[in-house]
Amino acid sequence: MLKVWGFSELKPDQKIIEEEIFDIVKKNYRQFWYTPIETPGVERNEVLTAKWGGEVWNQILGVYWLAQWASDLKKYSLHFDLTVPFARYVLDYRGELTFPFKRSQIQKVWRWERQQRGRSREFYQADIDVIWEELEWKDYLFYDSEVINIWYKTYLEIFEKFNLNLKIKININNKKIISGFIGALGLWEKFTEISIVIDNKEKISAEEFENKLIEVCRDNSWIISTEELVQKIIDFTNFEANYENIDKLVNMVGNADLQSLQELEKWISELKTVLKNAYLLWIDKENIIINLWIIRGLDYYTGTIFETFIEWDRKLWSIASGGRYEDFTKHLDKKTKFSGVGFSMWITRFEDYLFEKMDMEKQAKTTSEYLIINFEQTIEESLKLYNNLSKTGKKVEFFPESDKLKKQFRYADNKGIKYCILLWEWELEKWVYTMKNMETGESEEISL
Amino acid sequence: MLKVWGFSELKPDQKIIEEEIFDIVKKNYRQFWYTPIETPGVERNEVLTAKWGGEVWNQILGVYWLAQWASDLKKYSLHFDLTVPFARYVLDYRGELTFPFKRSQIQKVWRWERQQRGRSREFYQADIDVIWEELEWKDYLFYDSEVINIWYKTYLEIFEKFNLNLKIKININNKKIISGFIGALGLWEKFTEISIVIDNKEKISAEEFENKLIEVCRDNSWIISTEELVQKIIDFTNFEANYENIDKLVNMVGNADLQSLQELEKWISELKTVLKNAYLLWIDKENIIINLWIIRGLDYYTGTIFETFIEWDRKLWSIASGGRYEDFTKHLDKKTKFSGVGFSMWITRFEDYLFEKMDMEKQAKTTSEYLIINFEQTIEESLKLYNNLSKTGKKVEFFPESDKLKKQFRYADNKGIKYCILLWEWELEKWVYTMKNMETGESEEISL
Which chain B residue has its CA at the smallest distance from A31's CA? Predict the structure, then answer.
């Protein structure tokens, strides 16, 4: 993909592919009644900054604010995602919406980024979310499975459409499982520190890893030894969880207070319910993996989280991520309580990958198949022929000027148009037109 | 249409209609090989301001510039149209493009506007243009007819789709005819002043009009009297031109040097060629009117110009305008010479009108027709039924929680879902499901 000053730009072949992608996305979002909305490209800064506040927000987020001679400076900024605008939207129209409210939104968002592959300063997100008011507490856990299912189905169709030999693996987790496990070990206060160590696991040796954990956990007054605790954490990080074995996590805690264990059991059973419904809906077991360690970067979410990566140049790139969140309008209005679940597809990033991988030559060309040659003497009859061929669905173009034949043929050649159609006076007399194959040079007469 | 701080916002029913409009637009643009491109939402200021320069550009244009902590202030702005970005695009990729190059572009643009009906600070334009290098001078007049034809066909389909009882009248002119006429009268130096008077014609009495013209033309050294000259101008402004009678304009000049008359003849014949080809392509004569006075506000164009208005609250609103332009990249690169012809459809303005006029109630609803009730005991079978119905194309939704039946029914009621489907244990035993009509209350058993 071309980047103009870090903003992406699409040429005809690419834009046609993008439209094909959006057609698939829209079809799937609609099929499950996630109705489309569109919000402005800009939001008031007080909305965009509500979660962070203070002066540093635009540094953190890389937001572009707008300035205009006639308006207050810095009153609006381009939105950096579609979730914050949606939160504002829900509050603005809450009286008119029926909850649970399912919406989809496909729009560009803008973020300040260094210029590099896989990142763009302007990119398309395709989001769906379902949200509800927490007037009476309901889990609506079914929706977690539904959105994963839509996501899976959508990417599957896109991969097939462009003959990408890619398997979709959805990484799924429930954020509460790891905190529940650490909590059940009695190490809740050390949670952040332990997370940082575990985050580095892949970069250090097993020995270093153990030593760092011991260091972090040492100063404790628990019943079992530090070494024992650390061993449990190591076992946890090595545990390859799946639907059948994930209950074992509870046994791995060992002795703990009943309440902590019940909490952990609850989060595990939540994840299993989501998985079970997903299997029932569409997704094969092999396409969804429990990954107890996808947490980072998804700080927005509070329960189920899911992410899909593609490998590109030995690096993993997320092409979609989502999850469940609680109380997502609280920064804009303390009195409301809305929760939901949803995801974003990173369309522009996926296209970055796609345009590099796919054989653009083999894709649908943006040119016609037939060029009708323009002769001044027979322009009326040629235009009639053009109209007739065009109405029967032929991919036909009309040369705009009764120019030298050589020049008209050159135009066809340059654009890769396969046939030129000639209707000159002597053809008219015979009541035929001539179709010239530009590749072979052969001509054929066809009756008018 | 809703306006959030003057920027438009679409609710589900409206966004679905917008997508239907874009489907029609894209289909027609593609049919004539105007291939889609997409440029960033922003351009560098030096590109946007090239035509105007100086300090005042953002006041004139109402542009929003972007500011960002990490970048130079005021380096980029949101584009205010799609023509300037396209000029930059043509220069950037000229080596790769085959000319004449036909492109379409459907994107949002941003302009500072006071908040009012019919105007929005953010709106969609749907443009097509064909451009060519003026290495050897070619008129490519055919394209003027082609783009008018596409425009006509597109709006016709849109009007039909939404049952709008509107007739499309395309106002067409060639800007050179009026200047040619005034020039042939020998009044070229007075052209601007005369135009201003004529512009006010509708607002003043016939007597005042004549007096003002006399005032402007008096100080001359021509052969015929001022009164005679003024009478010719009055005759011109009263002349209702059409394809058959427009040649009379030449006679209306009277005595003049041969070259001036030949020039005027040429522009008239240019307009007639465009009309004739348009008739040959698609458009009925009654749908296209010569309007010798559409000039204002279209200062960009140099030859053929065309515009379509709708009447709304006794005011005429342009819903599309276009024309032919020469040398449209000269502000960005003096060495190039590109000319072209194209138009913009003002989609957001048209929607403003449409959403007010159309009966939204009668339009496609954004909800499903069937709601499958969620029973905890039979969730597996219910989900299977949901999958099966959904795969056969039924508009079906699944309630996300095994909640009180009353609440599930209420959700269907609120969303206007017509049928609820129940599959509880006793239904399973009988191997049926119950379909309850929410309007009549009647139930029916259907075999699984």
Answer: B395
In CATH terms, the fold of domain B370-447 is: Rossmann fold (3.40.50)
Residue B384: list chain A partners with CB under 8 A: 280
Judged against a pLDDT cut of 60, whether residue B73 lies above it is answered with no
Tokens 């960002």 belong to B68
pLDDT tens track for A59-108:
555 677 676 655 554 578 889 899 999 999 999 999 888 899 999 999 99
Q: In terms of DSSP bridges, do strands A35-36 and A7-9 run parallel, antiparallel, or are they unpaired?
A: unpaired
Question: What mean pLDDT do residues B290-319 have?
Answer: 83
Choose the weakest-confidence range: A40-54, A410-424, B373-387: A40-54
CA atoms within 13 A on the CB side of B406: 0
Residue B268 has pLDDT above 80, yes or no: yes
Q: Is A397 close to B33, i.e. CB distance below 8 A? A: yes
Sign of CA dihedral B278, B279, B281, B287: positive
Give the tens place of pLDDT for each residue, B360-380: 655 556 678 999 999 999 999
Of B37, B64, B395, Cβ closest to residue A68: B64
CA–CA distance from B145 to each of A93, A392, B149 (Å)? 46, 21, 6
Query: What is the Cα–Cα distance from A58 to A45, expressed in whole angstroms?
Result: 10
At B360 the pLDDT is 63
Q: CA separation (Å) from A410 to A321, A418, B236, B237? A: 49, 12, 45, 46
Minimal CA separation from A197 to chain B, in Å: 32
B53-B57-B62 Cα angle (round to 5): 155
> Where would I find the beta strands (DSSP E) of B79-220?
101-110, 122-133, 170-174
Chain B contact set for A106 (CB, 8 A):
none
Residue of A nearest to B391 (CA): A31
All residues of chain B having their beta carbon less than 8 Å from the beta carbon of residue A400 are 100, 130, 140-143, 146
- Please name the amino acid found at residue A37: I
| Burial class of residue B72 (count of CB atoms within 10 Å of its CB; 0-12, 13-18, 19+) | exposed
Considering only CA atoms, which of A168, A177, A150 is closest in space to residue A294? A177
CB count in 10 Å sphere of residue B300: 15
Higher pLDDT, A246 or A326: A246
Whole-model pTM?
A: 0.90
Confidence of residue B269 (pLDDT cuts 50, 70, 90): very high
Q: Rounded to an integer, what distance in angstroms lies between the CA atom of residue B309 and that of residue B312?
A: 9
SS (HEC) of chain A: CEEECCEEEECHHHHHHHHHHHHHHHHHHHHCCCEECECCCEEEHHHHCCCCCCCCHHHHHCCCEEECCCCCCCCEEECCCCHHHHHHHHHHHCCCCCCCEEEEEEEEEECCCCCECCECCEEEEEEEEEEEECCCCCCCCHHHHHHHHHHHHHHHHHHHHCCCCCCCCEEEEEHHHHHHHHHHCCCHHHHHHHHHHHHCHHHCCHHHHHHHHHHHHCCCCCCCCHHHHHHHHHHHHHCCCCCCCCCHHHHHHCCCCHHHHHHHHHHHHHHHHHHHHHHHHCCCHHHEEECCCCCCCCCCCCCEEEEEEEEECCEEEEEEEEEEECCCCCCCCCCCCEEEEEEEEEHHHHHHHHHHHCCHHHCCCCCCCEEECCCHHHHHHHHHHHHHHHHCCCCEEECCCCCCHHHHHHHHHHHCCCEEEECCHHHHHHCEEEEEECCCCCEEEEEC
Please answer yes or no on whether B280 and A98 come within 8 Å at the CB atom. no
CB-CB neighbors (< 8 A) of A37 in chain B: 9-12, 15
Residue-wise pLDDT for A207-240, tens only, equals 999 999 999 888 656 667 888 889 999 999 899 9
